[in-house]
Amino acid sequence: MSGQSALRDESELNSGRVATADTSKTADVRFEHVTKRFGDANAVDDLNLEVRAGEFFSLLGPSGCGKTTSLRMLGGFEEPTAGRIFIGGQDVTDLAPYRRNVNTVFQSYALFPHLDVFENVAFGLRRQHVAKVEVKRRVGEMLEMVDLPNFERRQPSQLSGGQQQRVALARALVNQPRLLLLDEPMSALDAKLRRQMQVELKRIQSQVGITFIYVTHDQEEAMTMSDRLAVMWHGKIEGMGSPKDVYDNPTSEFVATFLGASNLLSGEIVRTEGGMVSVATSGGVEIRVPTSRVPDLNSSAVKVGVRPEKIDLAPEGSSPTAGCNSLRGRVRVSTFTGVGNQYIVETESGVEVTVYAQNLGSQFAPRSGDNVVLMWPEEHTFTVRPLGEKTEINELEGD
Amino acid sequence: MTEPRSRGGWGKRLAPYLLSLPAGLWLLLLFIVPLGAMLVMSLETCSPATGACVMTWHWGELPSVVSLYRAQFLTSFYFAAAATLADLVISFPIAYWIAFHGGRRKNFFLLMLLVPFFVSFIIRTIVWEFVLSNNGVVLHTLKNFHLLPHGFHVLGTGFAVVAGLAYNYLPFTALPLYVALERIDYRILEAAYDLYATRRAGFLRVILPLTVPGIFAAFLLTFIPAFGDYVNQEILGGTANTMVGTVVQNQFLVNLDYAGGASLSAVLLAISLVGIFLYARLLGSRTIEQYL
């Protein structure tokens, strides 16, 4: 393990610990140009990141994108190859894990198999020489909070996955850390339990008011729980902001396709006037995008995008509503999903566009083979930088 | 319809017994029968002249051999204990290093540890005799450089016996320790560091407790055979420091006192069983299998 050279005697523990300051709305965690190299691959590539105090922040991305490495550097388990990391204004880059006021919920929970639930939760307090009565009180309170009262004398092997996870959470939170790191804590739980734990985790976070940094590859999970999130790919942040911001206004092709689904059409910027950018798509149709939603006005080759649920279908021959972009096409596939219909429409230029229509029971519902007009408001259109020729999005999906 | 099915049922029911028959016979003939014969013999009285033995239910033989060979039992105990302790101290760092830092070459390192043990037990011990002898490589060189007095010798001392025992039984200590250490999930150690454990606390509070069953298994697997060993004492110990194993060997092969030899063996067996029983009580009988 790297960073262990800095491990010193236990007696120094209390004097050298990061002080817990007030949790005002300032940056609580800061990565400055952090790079981590394994061999000749950059796991994390010049990362700059700020997380505010009290925030639920998610690092989201496919496996191998550098999110877990970033978290491990924050916990002190990996040393950055370059750059500095600050927690609460203090440079912790060279601090050993036990000298950081940070606790982690590990992906595998990593409970101590030789200790019962009480001793697992008490482990951190005992290492900090907290008085016995105090340990008993705080462990009891914490087990109460994670809904595991009377579990003190159980062994970890006697617990279900969900219960083990609660113990892991209690074991970290009982130390009242400044920062709680969660490394895909739900990946071992089934879907139903996972949704239940998402709500639970959010409740606990608002109760304790600690900054949570949550690593996941599950975009729904990240969007449900986070105040803000960062989408990572190839060791870099591809998009960052509130879930709504990042979803509605993706700035890169990767974000547009990884976070939800997007229809993307290649095109070229031909004009900018009156706060609107016109993009000529390959089929010759011009699509208008607000200037504020074009990340780079200087590059002419872009991809213009729209989310499937933002598109309305209208019968053939309908004239587009003012302030809307429109494309003509023919329905190839129509799938009823209960809550709605999913259409795949082939446009005149041969591009397939996906459309989700909510099942309101009243609107126009074309069948496959019908000619339709696709319409969506200009303000829901965005452009992204196209990916390079070599980089394929599926490259990193799966394990 | 029912005929073939019932025959299949019979076959199925008999299968486990048929499959275990060879091993069962093997155990019966080569383990249970000799063990029984030894226990029976320990209660017989043998004529030193003819070697013929008669069952006399002579229970008194057992305590009498213990008191008669008390010194040898104690020597065996001290030597075996010292060798076991030395093995634990020597092999813990080795096993620890292979388990946590061996990477992809763990099996290679284990093999390297075991390579000397492909050579026969006796040959290995005789080679040690060469190494430790007065004119051997080590002592001769050290004496030439005047680092040791001229009369210094190792062979024929208790130290040589303990060294030989420790060397010969090292794998029996190293392997169970390795198994115990290798099974520790590294992430558990990271969790300990995350929860304010220093390196020392991580070792004392996490690694050591999780290694205890392995340490105990290593102790049994080393101590028991070392306790009954006679080869090391014979070859390296000279005439002094007789261990109980040597006595047993002499009783059988030199004095032809089969009853006395069998009684000593029975006592040795009883001592080993107490050790295993304690292990099972303290650490559960299931864990012992995992380390054997």
- Provide the β-strand percentage band of chain A: 25-35%
How many separate domains of chain A? 2
- Biggest sheet record of chain A: 6 strands, mixed
Beta-strand percentage of chain B?
under 5%
In one word, what is the shape of chain B?
Answer: globular
Multimerization state: heterodimer
Number of helices of chain B: 14
CATH architecture descriptor of the largest domain in chain A: 3-Layer(aba) Sandwich
Q: What is the typical, i.e. mean, pLDDT of chain B?
A: 86
Which structural class best describes the helix and strand composition of chain A?
Answer: alpha+beta
Give the spatial strand order of the biggest sheet of chain A.
6-7-8-3-9-10
Description:
- The complex is a heterodimer of chains A (399) and B (292).
- Chain A has 399 residues and is of the alpha+beta class.
- Chain A folds into two domains: 3-248, Rossmann fold; 261-384, RNA polymerase II/Efflux pump adaptor protein, barrel-sandwich hybrid domain (OB fold (Dihydrolipoamide Acetyltransferase, E2P), Beta Barrel).
- Chain A has helices at 13-16, 67-75, 117-127, 132-145, 161-173, 191-208, 219-225, 243-248, 253-258, and strands at residues 27-38, 41-52, 56-60, 82-87, 90-91, 102-105, 179-183, 211-216, 228-233, 236-241, 263-273, 276-281, 286-290, 301-306, 312-315, 324-336, 340-347, 352-358, 371-377, 382-384.
- In chain A, strands 6-7-8-3-9-10 form a six-stranded mixed beta sheet, with helices on both faces. In chain A, strands 13-12-11-14-20 form a five-stranded antiparallel beta sheet. Chain A has a five-stranded antiparallel beta sheet with strand order 15-19-16-17-18, with no helix packed on it.
- In chain A, helix 3 (117-127) packs across helix 4 and helix 4 (132-145) packs across helix 5.
- The longest helix of chain A has 18 residues, at 191-208.
- Chain B is mainly α.
- Chain B has one domain: Orthogonal Bundle (MetI-like fold), CATH 1.10.3720.10.
- Chain B is built from 14 helices and two strands; from the N terminus they run αββααααααααααααα.
- In chain B, helix 2 (61-68) crosses helix 13 (258-283), helix 3 (70-101) crosses helix 10 and helix 10 (199-228) packs antiparallel against helix 13.
- Chain B starts with a helix and ends with a helix.
- Classes of the chains: A alpha+beta (399), B mainly alpha (292).
- Chain A binds chain B through residues 1, 4, 7-10, 13, 75-77, 96-98, 102-104, 106, 108, 110-114, 123-124, 127-128, 171-172, 175, and chain B through 185, 187-188, 190-201, 205-206, 209-210.
